[in-house]
Specification:
By secondary structure, the protein is of the alpha+beta class. The protein has a single domain, classed as Alpha-Beta Complex (Sulfite Oxidase, Chain A, domain 2), CATH 3.90.420.10. The protein is 19% helix and 20% strand. The two termini are 27 Å apart. It binds ligand MTE. The site of ligand MTE has 16 residues, from loops.
Length: 329
């Protein structure tokens, strides 16, 4: 655990791994806004799931309520017994390094991101490369809602209903060639909107923007792999990766790349943002595994950012049945 492979400035902040501190940081952010989620008021649970919406009462709530609603019926196959994490928490506790190294100001800083027009190029080892307009893509793909667990490598977790469509549906539409072995995802590159993309290297280690991630073809075609465009019945807020992101619930949070502009099928394993920064701490595969500690902390337990409960982490984040077969041998 004492092994430190990253330069100090590039460590994920250890305070975020300390469960009480995770909560305190978030709580400070919430109370700074004059809201109280944990204390139980927040306009009688405004934005807590299942409750009627009241009139918008803050900048956050106004922005969120202005997001278009999405039609996506819940798929009963993907349910979770843990309580849903209220949007008021999911939307104010974010990792989005293009905008901030903190968690509690991303929702404000990401307001600058332009999400229309927006296109997604799907190319590489495919027979029918295409660039989709985001709204055409949403109309064309089979939309559904799924409740998934989400486990960050920093040992916090949440449970939310995402709306989207299986990545497999999109990949089938472009007809992968037999050479396609991996899928590479790339986030936008716009330093004028996301100032941290334009930063000079710190301590000689440049941040390898644009953010990239990758999956094997088998992982990409797995039923759980969801291209996500909505949350809690509305379009994704910017801080959560608008207008389109990846959700792979059996992998650590950083694999769930936000605001994707390009999906490329490749023969070789692609380089990824965190793997470039800290290859010994952030592997390419990065499946949730309580038995494999991060070099600097245990992964055996996690703190639910909604209930604040500490609970044991599950192998493959509880999705063993769907994905264990991918890793046999
Ligand atoms: N995608 C981009 N483009 N940039 C990022 O910094 N952070 C990752 C992932 N996707 C990140 C990203 C990390 S570390 C996590 S834990 C999740 O997004 C957080 O998603 P959320 O803010 O919706 O909870």
């Amino acid at each position: 655990m004492a092994n430190v492979h990253l330069k100090k400035e590039w460590m994920l902040p250890e305070r975020m791994v300390t469960p009480e501190q995770v909560y305190i940081t978030r709580r400070q952010a919430i109370s700074a806004l004059g809201l109280s989620v944990i204390g139980g008021s927040l306009s009688a649970g405004l934005f807590a799931p299942g409750l009627a919406e009241a009139a918008p009462s803050s900048r956050f709530e106004a922005t969120y309520s202005a997001l278009p609603r999405l039609k996506a019926a819940r798929n009963p196959k993907y349910q979770v017994s843990d309580p849903l994490t209220p949007m008021s928490i999911v939307g104010k506790f974010n990792n989005f390094y293009e905008f901030s190294r903190e968690k509690d100001d991303v929702w404000l800083k990401a307001e600058k991101l332009t999400t229309r027009p927006w296109t997604v190029e799907v190319s590489g080892e495919v027979k029918k490369a295409r660039t989709f307009d985001i709204d055409d893509l949403i109309k064309r793909m089979p939309m559904e809602e799924r409740v998934y667990r989400f486990r960050c490598v920093e040992a916090w977790s949440m449970t939310v209903p995402w709306a989207g469509f299986p990545l497999s549906a999109l990949l089938k539409a472009v007809e992968p060639t037999s050479r396609a072995k991996f899928v590479k995802f790339t986030t936008f590159m716009r330093p004028s909107e996301a100032p941290r993309q334009g930063r000079k290297p710190w301590f000689g280690q440049p941040e390898p923007f644009p953010y990239t991630e990758g999956l094997s073809m088998a992982e990409a075609m797995n039923e759980l792999t969801l291209i996500t465009v909505g949350i809690y019945g509305r379009a994704l807020p910017k801080q959560n990766g608008a207008p389109i992101r990846l959700i792979v619930p059996w992998k650590y949070g950083y694999k769930n790349i936000k605001s994707v502009v390009k999906i490329e099928l490749t023969e070789r394993q692609p380089a990824t943002f965190w793997n470039l920064l800290g290859p010994r701490e952030y592997g390419f595969v990065s499946n949730v595994n309580p038995r494999v500690p991060h070099p600097r902390w245990s992964q055996a337990f996690e703190r639910d950012i909604g209930t604040r409960r500490r609970k044991p982490t599950l192998l493959y984040n509880g999705y063993e049945e769907q994905v264990a077969g991918l890793y046999k041998g």
